[in-house]
Amino acid sequence: MKPSIPKGTRDFLPGQVAKRQYIFETIKKVFENYGYLPIETPVMENLSTLTGNYGDEGDQLLFKVLNNGDFLSNADQKILNDKDSKALIPAIAKRGLRYDLTVPFARFVTMHQNDLAFPFKRYQIQQVWRGDRPQKGRYQEFYQCDADVVGSESLMYEAELIKIYDDVFHQLGISSVIKINNRKILFGIAESLGIEDKFVDMTIALDKLDKIGEGKVVKDMMTRGIDNNKAKKAIDFLSINNLDDLELKFAQTETGKKGIAELRTFHQYLDQAECYNEVRFDISLARGLSYYTGCIFEVSAIGVEMGSIGGGGRYDDLTGSFGLSGVSGVGISFGAERIYDVMEELELFPSEIEQMLKVLLIAFDDSSHLFAFDILMKLRLKGISADLYPEPAKMKKQMKYADKIRVPYVILVGDEEMKTGMYSLKNMKTGEQNSVSLEEIANILKD
After folding, report:
1. DSSP code of 330?
2. What is the DSSP code (8-state) at residue 131?
3. What is the pTM for the complete model shown?
4. Quick check: 38 and 123 in contact, CB under 8 A?
5. How does DSSP classify residue 346?
C-alpha cells in the first residue's frame, strides 16, 4: 500500500523546519521581551472542557478520541441502531484534541490558580487540531503561538498585545493591517435593532463577510431567524468607519457606548507607541468564537491573498465555566502555518536560515578520513556545525553530496594537509579555494 498522511496534515523537510523555527523563535523572543512566561498543556483535553466554548460550529470541528478498550460497551443500543452519532459521542469518547490554546489555558488557570501571581502573563507555542475542510492556508493540524494575560481588566494589555503583533510582523518583514473592534459594539448593533436574542447568530454571520459577501451574509442571518429588514440594517452599520459617527447611532444602547469608550481608552495607550503597521478600526470584524466579550483583533498580510494570520480578543469569564468566576483575560494568537505560507510567497525568509551545516569535510583515503574525524571534533568543540562524509569515496561523489545538501564550505583533507596542518577550504558558492590553518577556518566559519 502506498504510504500517505491524513488530509489537512503535512510533512516538513529539514529546510522547512528551519524556516518554521525561525518564525517560532522570532515570536518567542518578542513574547519574552514583553514579560510573558511559557507554559504547556496536553494535546488531549476532556471533551467536557472543550465543548460549549466555541459555539455549535466550533464544537462540530472538534476531533474526538475514542475511549480505550471496548469503547462500544457503554453505548446505548437504540442510539447505535438509530445511527445517531451526536448522541453516541458521550458514551464512546470522553477526550478530544485541543481546538485552540485559549480554552485549555482557562482550564489551566483554574487548576493552578494558587500557584500563579495575577495578573498572569503566559505564552504557549503548541499544536492544535480542527476538522476544517483543508484548503490554502487552512489545515487540520497546525501550530498556534498564543500570548494571554488573565486577572486584569486593564485596557493597557490590549494595547500591549497589539504592539506584540506589530513588533513580530515588523521583524518578520510582513507588512500587515491590524484590525480592531469590540464585541460590545457588535452587541450595540443587535441591541439598537432589537435582536439582542440573536446576537450570536448575527456575529457568526458577520464573521463570514469577507468570505461570502454582503448578500449571502444577509441570507445567512435570515436562515438564523433575523428578518430581512433588520439583517440589511445590520449590514448598513458596517459602512461606519469612525467612533464619533458610531456614537450618534448608539444613543439608545449603553453596551454599544461602553464598547466605544473601551476602544478610546485602548487608543490612549496605543497611540503613545510607534507602530510599524496600520492599526485600523473595522466594525465588520466579529470573530466567530463565542467566548469573546470585549476588544477583538485580527491581522491580515498586505500583498498576498491569505486569510487572517493572527487574531484574538478579550474574554471576561472564560474560567467561569470551570468554577473560577470573575477572572478577565485577553489574548492573541499567531497563525504560524499561514505566516509561513505568506513568507514563502513573498520570499521573506533570510537565505542563510537553511544553511545550518557550515562545513563538510572530505577525505581522500582511509588514513586521511581518520585524521579528518579528529578535525571534525575540534571544529564542533568550537561551536561550528560540521560534518564528515562517511567514507573516502571518489571526490566527484563527495562533492556532488556537498552540492545537494547546499553546504557553504568544504574542507579537503589529504596527505599534504595531514603533514602541514594547512587545509584546503573551498567556498561552494564562489568556487574560491584557499589553504588555511584550523584556527583561521574557525574564524571564517564563525563570521
Report:
1. E
2. -
3. 0.86
4. yes
5. T
